[in-house]
Amino acid sequence: MPKLHVTTTINGEPVEFLCDPTQSMLEVLRDELGLTGSKEGCASGDCGACTITVDDRLVCSCLMLAAEAEGRRIGTIEGMAEGERLHPLQRKFVEMAALQCGICTPGFLVAAKALLDRNPDPTETEVRYWLAGNLCRCTGYDKIVRAVLETAAEMRAAAR
Amino acid sequence: MNDVRYLAPRTLDEAVRALAAADGAGRVLAGGTDLLVQMRAGAVSPGVIVDVKKIAEMTTIEETADGGFRIGAAVSGAEIGDHPRLGQVWPGVVEAINLIGSTQIQGRASPGGNLCNASPAADSVPALVAAGATVTVQGPDGRREVPVEKIQAGPGRTTLGRGEIVVSFTLPPRPPGSGDAYLRLIPRTEMDIAVVGCGVSLTMQGGTCTAARVGLGAVAPTVLLVEDAAKALIGSRLEDEALEAAAAACRAACRPINDKRGTIEYRTRIAGVLLKRVAAIAAERAAAGGKH
């Protein structure tokens, strides 16, 4: 079976890869490109551990064919920190212990960043609904939601 | 999943040709939120995957000259939710589409996919039925326009012929004093499949209902257009007797199954309850709106 040649952008960098027609974006990110931050939880779009952005829209990378990345802009958790400097959400997740085992964390961070990018001052309800597609079996969600709200407040203060 | 071909044509003609040539083994890929799950589960094993997202007509929303809307079948729920005008004129259609799955699913899932996956519980379909949406279908024999309620044939089955693709939805121009709404019953607040879904579209003039359409989901093998419920509302001032008559028509239209989400009796009863609640929201919007 011939491989498909895909030209795309990942975290701002031009990337080319070869893939099988049925390989998911998540498989290519993890197994071909070494970007293992995105996790496979359910492989059916329910858990959000594989969350990435495609042209700034949140997407489950397990439910996207790698071939569909052609010409698109992909964003993954690896693009969130600037070198050693953590994104405020990442820093706040650490400070407030908004994670335990960590499998769901990259997905939560990517999804929470997308929320704060479009709504710098979300209510708790908005945060909870926005993150309803990210499952966490450790924290009970409360610490995560509080960390997102705290980060939003901090980022608003910093922007003033 | 062996020997699958992936194609991303830029024109509908190419897409139709590829699907028709696949001899039944072709699948349209829009958002993929159903197709990829089905492939992974081994429920379908397509020979050809036709990604339609490079076809401009299928990925754009336009307001037509007469005040209607044409929504590409592969437009994502997120884009539909962000459209500056669509949600003002058709809030019920937009809220129904935006109820499907999580934020991540909304990033990809499309109304065309929701329709063609042909689940009786598809959230967008009762609202589109209520809205009087028509579907543009293109196939090897050309184009045809079909009322949206004629596409589903049964769970997982459509009336589409071989090589036919749902290209877009057309929502008609909206008279002043119109409103629509969609509600579904689920046992939680988010991320679930409708036990019953109900869409209502109304036009009110001087307090009297002059036009109505009602769509019901998850209570029959396909989403239903309930004409008797609409008849009970038209000409009324939405007083209690009219609403009860419309609710009774909804209950009478139900042919549900018993399953883990609900019993026949429960679904039938809820269909009437939802009709009343949804009609009230649509009427409120009709009174507040008409100013789009």
Automatic annotation (TrEMBL), chain A:
Iron keyword on record: yes
Keywords tagged on the record: 2Fe-2S, Iron, Iron-sulfur, Metal-binding, Oxidoreductase
Gene3D superfamilies from the UniProt entry: 3.10.20.30, [2Fe-2S]-binding domain (1.10.150.120)
Pfam families hit by this protein: Fer2, Fer2_2
Gene Ontology MF term list: 2 iron, 2 sulfur cluster binding; metal ion binding; oxidoreductase activity
PROSITE patterns recorded: 2FE2S_FER_1, 2FE2S_FER_2
SUPFAM superfamilies: 2Fe-2S ferredoxin-like, CO dehydrogenase ISP C-domain like
InterPro entries with a match to the protein in the record: 2Fe-2S-bd (IPR002888), 2Fe-2S-bd_dom_sf (IPR036884), 2Fe-2S_ferredoxin-like_sf (IPR036010), 2Fe-2S_ferredoxin-type (IPR001041), 2Fe2S_fd_BS (IPR006058), Beta-grasp_dom_sf (IPR012675), Diverse_Oxidoreductases (IPR051452)
Domain 2Fe-2S ferredoxin-type: 4-80
UniProt-recorded name of the protein: Ferredoxin
The species this protein was found in: Caldovatus sediminis
